[in-house]
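Worked problem 6 (solution included).
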Amino acid sequence: MSKPTEKAGKEYFQILAEIMRLRRACYHPRLFIPDINISNSKLTVFGDLLDDLIKNKHKALVFSQFVDYLKIICDFVEKGKFLINT
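Solution. The predicted structure is:
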């Protein structure tokens, strides 16, 4: 009886792993395919929001479940010449 349960457990974790890969792809294509060079609308909106925050002298804390996405954000901010404190 444990064999069907064991198989179902492996399939369940495989499905969860694929869902996590899809979530990463939704954050930024480079999290799914590292060598891809596609623009990301989330970063564009983030840049607009960051411009407004800086103009109005506000502070913001940026966090993400995916640490490697934070590296993408840091690269974006550095290229955009935003004045930030890290």
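Discussion: The first helix runs from residue 2 to 27.
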